[in-house]
Design brief:
Shape: globular
Strand content: 35-45%
Strand order of the largest sheet: 25-24-23-22-32-31-30-29-28-27-26
Radius of gyration: 27 Å
Mean pLDDT: 88
Number of strands: 32
Distance between the termini: 81 Å
Helix content: 10-25%
Length: 573
């Protein structure tokens, strides 16, 4: 902030002195350098700005975030436009775009422009580093003025950070947003807010207006870019994304401390130890000192993420990792936006095929949309699911369906496990256990205390042998953290015989590094962490598996040696 104030003072002083200086005197070099830097930043940023046109439905703005055409805009811009829209860039070209995913609560939508693979993506900035007094500028399509495909640029400064706005008659809730006096008007919605270096730090959305008309009064709000990036993986899944809740409410006591005033005993926060009366001091990566600050910290995370939470009880600090629940049930969220997500037609055609007033859509563009309940565009879920599956280096011989493994436990005791399509057996530390793969699997949670180790191993083997289509139902969930919110993994979610499983893949290597098996809702899953892969008869398998449940390590299997064979007898020669 001090740098920004110093820069402002320099510019003001230069302008003031220039009034009395000789017309022949050259401006100070610092002023010229600052002016050239501002011009270069605006020029660079303008190339990534998107003007969205939706015909009679209006339009708005957006910003490119990747060279393959992904762009972010507001949900309230994309919603009236439908599944397809037209977008322009400052290069003077008009591009087709298709909806990808939506976040109705956070007022964010992801679209994808078509026609090239070298789109000029914006540089993403760290919105947590934004300070009051920083210079910033907005680029967009106010009042849909960009009919010449050239966006409008407005300059200003950051007026506030960490602003929270309650929903006002809608789902939309703005948390941890940036306030600016850069002119933001109707049509700027969905467009980028940049810092002085041309890095996008927010997505413009709301404005405070005069009662006499929808015009800017110097108070605009941008969704923080860090929040957008947290949701980006979920948005790429084509889903209708929900925000998170802790499962607890807080208020400020007489001493100004943020105290838990109510908590659901079915929440993960309760299972991890948070209780009524505890003082909440940190959430995610941010300190909590006010109720407003807690709502801001909570609002930047999607449903299902695990985040660190810190609290005090009796003068002692406790730090836990909590899995966040959703603000809405799936049915509730879909009911509130049913106009936005059209169900598939009985004949499988797109709803806009039967709308005589719908804008013309090419057959090629229609191929990029697939309707399905719970999704803004199921096509992109299939695309991300298949990408993750193809990157998994697992081996190809599915005929080897009997896996035997021998190894040691953490205390040195022996462990032997055999996996087959119809049965799983184990001998762990001298104790034998078996499950048959039939009937109600949700009750087969052997060995005791593991949360269902044998059933989890069966689901893991089943996915590798049966593949995406035969496992059950497999979809792409998005990107999510495990132990640190700074590291994200591609997650496939599988449903098989009422068992929910989640498989975490490292984006850099494609390796499966963890899985979670949920035998029932509102319970701790059995978690497996796969490490130290090696090749066994053409199949890559881990030589170390860490077994966890809740916040405890159940046991560790290491030094694993796998033997693979077929349950089908070989044909006689």
């Amino acid at each position: 902030m001090m740098r920004s104030i110093a820069y402002f003072t320099l510019c003001f002083a230069a302008a003031f002195l220039g009034t009395f200086a000789s017309l022949d005197a050259a401006p100070p070099q610092e002023v010229l350098d600052a002016e050239n830097a501002r011009i270069a930043a605006v020029e660079k940023a303008t190339r990534s700005a998107v003007c969205v046109f939706a015909g009679a439905a209006g339009g708005g703005s957006g910003v490119l975030i990747s060279s393959d055409g992904y762009a972010v805009t507001n949900y309230h811009v994309a919603d009236p436009a439908g599944s397809f829209m037209k977008c322009s860039l400052s290069d003077g070209q008009l591009y087709d775009a298709v909806i990808v995913g939506i976040d109705p609560v956070g007022d964010v939508a992801l679209i994808k422009l078509q026609g090239r693979d070298d789109f000029p993506a914006a540089e993403i900035g760290d919105s947590d580093k934004v300070e009051v007094g920083d210079w910033c500028f907005a680029i967009g399509n106010p009042f849909l003025l960009a009919t010449d495909m050239q966006p409008t640029v407005t300059w200003g400064m950051v007026s506030g950070v960490g602003r929270y706005q309650y929903p006002s008659g809608t789902l939309i809730e703005y948390t941890d947003c940036i306030q600016t006096d850069a002119s933001i008007n109707p049509g700027n919605s969905g467009g980028p807010l940049f810092n002085r270096d041309g890095q996008v730090i927010g997505i413009n959305g709301r404005i405070s207006i005069e009662k006499r008309g929808r015009v800017n009064v110097g108070v605009g709000y941008a969704i923080s870019m860090n929040q957008v990036m947290n949701f980006l993986g979920y948005l790429k899944s084509g889903r209708v994304v929900d925000h998170a809740t802790l499962g607890a409410t807080v208020s400020t006591d007489s001493e100004g401390e943020v105290i838990v005033t109510n908590i659901l005993d079915t929440s993960d926060a309760y299972r991890r130890g948070l209780r009524y009366g505890d003082e909440l001091v940190s959430f995610g990566s941010k300190p909590v000192t006010t109720v407003n600050g807690f709502k801001n910290a909570l609002g930047i995370y999607p449903r299902g993420w695990r985040v660190p939470v810190g609290f005090f009880r009796g003068g002692e600090r406790h730090d836990i990792i909590v899995r966040l629940a959703g603000v809405h049930s799936r049915e509730e969220l879909l009911a509130k936006i049913q106009k936005s997500v059209a169900p598939p037609s009985p004949d499988g055609s797109h709803p806009e095929d039967h709308d005589e007033e719908a804008k013309p859509v090419s057959d090629e563009l229609k191929k990029l949309f697939k309707a399905r309940s719970g999704y803004a565009n199921y096509h992109f879920n299939l695309e991300q699911r298949d990408r993750t599956w193809q990157a998994w280096k697992r081996g190809d011989d599915s005929s080897l369906d009997v896996w035997k493994v021998a190894g040691q436990l953490a205390d040195g005791d022996a462990a032997q496990i055999e996996l087959s399509p119809l049965k799983v057996t184990a001998s762990v530390a001298g104790r034998d256990s078996t499950i048959e793969i039939e009937g109600d699997l949700t009750s087969k949670l052997e060995p005791a205390g593991s949360g269902g180790l044998l059933l989890a191993l069966h689901a893991w083997q089943r996915l590798q042998l049966q593949g995406l289509e035969k496992f059950g139902e497999v979809s792409y969930l998005g990107t999510a953290p495990l132990d640190s919110i700074d590291e994200r993994f591609d997650v496939l979610i599988g449903l098989y015989d009422a068992i929910e499983t989640r498989f975490y893949f490292a984006p850099q290597t494609g390796d499966l590094i963890a899985m979670e098996m949920f035998p029932e809702a509102d319970s701790d899953p059995c978690e497996l962490r796969f490490q130290e892969y090696d090749d066994f008869e053409g199949v890559r398998l881990p030589t170390k598996i860490i077994i966890r449940r809740g916040d405890q390590i159940y046991n560790i299997l290491h030094g694993l040696k796998w033997t693979l064979s077929s349950s089908e007898p070989k044909d006689a020669a």
